[in-house]
Amino acid sequence: MRKSLRLQAEMIQEFGTCVFDVTLDCEDGAPVGGEVEHAALVTDLALAAKAATPDARIAVRVHAVDHPSFEADMGLIAGRAGPVLSHIMVPKVECVADIDRAHAALIGAGAGDLPLHVLIESPLALEHANDIAAHPRVQSISFGLMDFVSAHGGAIPAEGMSGSGQFTHPLVVRAKLIIASACHAHGKVPSHCVVTEFKDTQAVRQAAQTANQALGYTRMWSIHPDQIRPILEAMAPSQAQIEQAVQILVAAQAADWAPISHAGQLHDRASYRFFWQLMERAHRTGRALPSEGQVFFHDLAVAKVNA
Hints:
Blueprint: H1 2-15, E1 22-25, H2 35-52, E2 58-61, H3 70-81, E3 87-90, H4 96-108, E4 116-120, H5 123-127, H6 129-134, E5 138-143, H7 145-150, H8 170-185, E6 189-192, H9 201-213, E7 219-220, H10 228-235, H11 239-254, E8 260-262, E9 265-267, H12 269-284, H13 291-306
Parallel strand pairs: 1-2, 2-3, 3-4, 4-5, 5-6, 6-7
Antiparallel strand pairs: 8-9
């Protein structure tokens, strides 16, 4: 956890923005019987890291809502560190009632405005993906690949949780598409699962590209620091895409956002939204923006300060 926080601070300095979140883990990270002590450690780490690096984005994955430590996790972590956290991650969510319980725990901890990110990890949860995505407290849904495969009782082979298998087995691909579609229907962020071959950077890069370009995922989990840069590179727009977006948006702004012709193609407000979203993704992933494109984000920053 400390290594991840140090790396995040270093990359904020490098890119001038926070290009990835650090999620401190209580579910798998806490030793059995040491859950309270681990929650206290996570809380202290989050508070110290945010104080040292104000632009850091730090989250915590608590225990599942049916775990004996869930309420204590939420009370301590959200109660003490809520103001510095970007979100709370809740694993093994099965239905909207689980979201309501987590939301109630946040309110009880005095952190009712803290967003929830949730993990869908079972066939039952998948059936409720649309309702989960529609919940106003949910900001993002992640796909828990390994637990999802295991929940099928051997009906999905082991290859379905690693390598190319996670992009070819029909039940796994179906699950990924359902989650991504539910998220986009309700304006939430779909977050792709991990790649376990953490030493194979090409496999990580290829998985991130497929998740983004073929399945509609805009975030992805890493399980090792070496995976972060390949994921960023794969999910970030190319320089050619960024330059095209800037040219179209600058021309559109000059035309007061009326339809324009660019390189022999018609563009209107539908494509303007697309290219603006591309610019936002470039900004979030630390890509270099042409000077003409930087003004858009400068204007947003000024507006935020003056609001």
